[in-house]
Amino acid sequence: MQETKLINKLKELQQIKPRKEWVILAKNQILAEPKPAFAESFSARKKESIFGILSFLPALIYQRKLAYAFATLLFIMVGMFGFAQYTMPGDILFSVKRMTEQSQTAFGAPENQLKNNLEIASRRLDDLTQVVKNNRMQNIAPAIKEFQASISQATKNLIDSIEQKDSQAIRALVLQIKKIEDNKKQLQTYGVDLIDTQESKDLNDALAPLAQREIDDLEKTTLTEDQQKTMQTIKDLYADGKYSDALEGILTLNK
User: Fold this and answer.
1) What are the E-state strand segments in the chain?
2) DSSP output for 212-232
């Protein structure tokens, strides 16, 4: 009997339905719960993004300033190196020009260094001639000093590479020295005498072993009568200590 009553009570409970207002309220509460958390998370991420961008801006501005500074410095350096090529000894930027030339001769075989040094010496002589022609009195002493320094360096390289000279290298060497000597004579007409300086004497003396070697080689060959006369002239020049002129004469026999 009691079991029958209990079953009937349970059936009655199943027939009970919640009110519509309560169902709607419960549903809204259930569906509305995730929204605050999502909104809070989205707001936090948005703030982090904004702060991230703001924190990156100083670094970006710094990098741009650094790039502009580097570009400006590069532009100034290119302009400075370009302008320096037109300077003369004694000018403020001439040291930049000298540094550029020296960097071109710092490496390579000794014979190439000698060639480059003689070319630089020839340029310094051209600079000196230009300075004298333009009556730039304040540049004359520095120009002479630069020329003498370049000749001394060429002489050192000549001594270091004297055994490595072949006929072609000797010809190029003699032609370069002859050009320098001719320019000295031209400069002498302007009242600047560099022919009998110690640097010129040292360069000429450095040519003595080279001239002697070439004379010895020529004496081992068969020469015509005219060549023998030229050979005697060469020997006389050598005996007088005019080694550059002797080498120039040797070139006429080797043609």
Assistant:
1) none
2) HHHHHHHHTS---HHHHHHHH
215 closest CA partner among 184, 250, 241: 250
155-192 residues labelled b (16+ CB within 10 A) or e (exposed): bbbbbebbeebeeebbbebbebbeebbebbeebeeeeb
What residues in the chain have per-residue pLDDT under 70?
1-84, 104-111, 255
Length of the chain: 255
Q: Which amino acid belongs to residue 211?
A: A
State pTM to two decimals: 0.64
Angle at CA 165, nearest 5°, toward 163 and 169? 165
Phi, psi of 135, deg, nearest 5: 60, 40
Residue ranges of domains in the chain: 29-84, 88-195, 207-255
- Return phi, psi of residue 130, to 5°: -65, -40
Output the pLDDT for position 45: 57
